[in-house]
Amino acid sequence: MYLDIALFGLLFVLQTGLFFVFHIFALRTFRNRNLLYCAAASAFAATGVAIFVGYSFLPRMFSSPGAWAVSLVGSAAASLFACGLYTFLGPATADRSLACQMLVALRESPGGKGARDGLFRGFNSDGFVEKRIDECREEALLIEAGGELVLTEKGRKLADKYIFLLGLLGLKERAGYVQYFTTDEDKSFK
Predict the structure, then answer these.
(1) What is the pLDDT, as a whole number, of residue 183?
(2) Which of 10, 7, 13 is nearest to 59 (CA)?
């Protein structure tokens, strides 16, 4: 039983370690590719390699075929979950989070500090929004027609899911919630 647990741990560590190696390689090699696709491809490639290793070299080391199968499937699921969690808490947040970029800007400034006005002057709001528009276009979530941005069917479905989630969790009603893009009359998109 202890050997089964150790082999499960070995498969999990192997998959997670390979993920980081593949992920770093993919991000450095394909710099202009989608961050989330690179992470997903790296996670699945690492899982595939670990399953191959577990299937090819480890079956006789387990106490039973059932323990072997559970370890292969369980370590794959656990590793994919861990890699996904890392991706959304790490690189995706660092790339997309305005707060993260603000902290980095302050840290890289002389003495690790700066004036509030300096942050406002240094913030490229056009670039920030333009990057998201380009990403949404790339993912076929919106198109540009007649000088306006129009959600595709896929974009409408995703927006509906976000609206449902915001309502379900009561996020708009929470203290501190800010709606950066509003359709109020004084801030109309037109």
Answers:
(1) 63
(2) 7
